[in-house]
Amino acid sequence: MKITIEGADKDFAEKLVALAAAHDAELTVATVDTSWTVERATRYLRSLTAGARRFAEMVVVDGDGYLDADQLRAAVGKLNGPTVALSRTIPRGVRKGWWPEGISAPITPVYDPDNPSWHKNIAYEMTSEDLPVFRAAIAALATDRAASKTPEPPAPWSGDAPSAFDPPPGWGAGDDAPRALLDEADTDVGSDNNSEREQER
Question: What sign results for the dihedral spanned by CA atoms 69, 74, 80, 84?
Answer without folding.
Answer: negative
